[in-house]
Amino acid sequence: MLEPLYFMLFSNLEAFAWCAICMSLFRFKIQEFAWQSLVVVTLMNLQSFVLRNELSLSYLVPFINIIFVTLLFAAIVRMPLLGALTVSIAGFVVFGLVQAVIALLLFGSIDGVGESAMNGYMLQIATAIIVLPMSWLLYRYGYGFSYSFEIFRFKNERTLLIVTIIAFMLAITAVLYLNDLWFVIALFVLSLMFFLKYAIQKEKTYD
């Protein structure tokens, strides 16, 4: 009964910590985008829960999560698209390394995490407890990369971003439609509208 609630709560903590370390590593302030990040990770984890636990489509989850976080950074934080992808992947690698070390300390091996759902929740909580303060300290004391990705911004990138969002969502929706997954389709449409709102607003600011 409580499994979906636990999954969402601890997965949101974990995903928010991932966003925080991504942004802090590249000198962006997570507090300025906290509520938007929470909306995105909630939508992301709702889809992850259905795909992972109900439909055995867990192989899609890491790919979708990286795309969601990339779109968060590109559409809302307003990084160049290539920069957003770089930040997402770099943060994912650092976050994964930290989480792997925590798993080894807590369970003695990475495989120990999968022995029970409680182990997974413990790992998510422990990771968030360590990564969130670490992210704050990185930003507070000026550590991280201050490299500007603006040189990688494409001409008419806002239009490209809007097209990318729509193409990604249509591709995923087509896969879900073939499997008659209407609830997940609705979540993707909601996510699409959220990203497009910011992408279109950004387009107007450049006009």
Q: What keywords describe this structure?
A:
single chain; 207 residues; mainly alpha; 0% strand; globular
Write up what this structure looks like.
The protein is mainly α and 207 residues long. It has one domain (3-154). It has helices spanning 3-25, 34-54, 61-76, 81-107, 117-140, 157-178, 182-206. It is globular.
Integer average pLDDT: 84
If you compute it from the alpha carbons, what radius of gyration comes out, rounded to the nearest whole angstrom? 17 Å
Number of domains: 1
Largest sheet properties:
none
Report the sheet-strand fraction: under 5%
Shape: globular
Structural class: mainly alpha
What proportion of the residues is helical, as a percent range? over 70%
Low-confidence stretches: none
- Taken in chain order, the helices and strands follow as HHHHHHH
Number of helices: 7
- Terminal Cα separation, in Å? 50 Å
Q: How many E-type strands?
A: 0
Quaternary status: single chain
Describe what is shown at a glance:
The protein is mainly α and 207 residues long.
Strands, helices and their partners?
Elements lengths: L2 H23 L8 H21 L6 H16 L4 H27 L9 H24 L16 H22 L3 H25 L1
Helix pairs in contact: 1-2, 1-4, 1-5, 2-3, 2-7, 3-4, 3-7, 4-5, 6-7
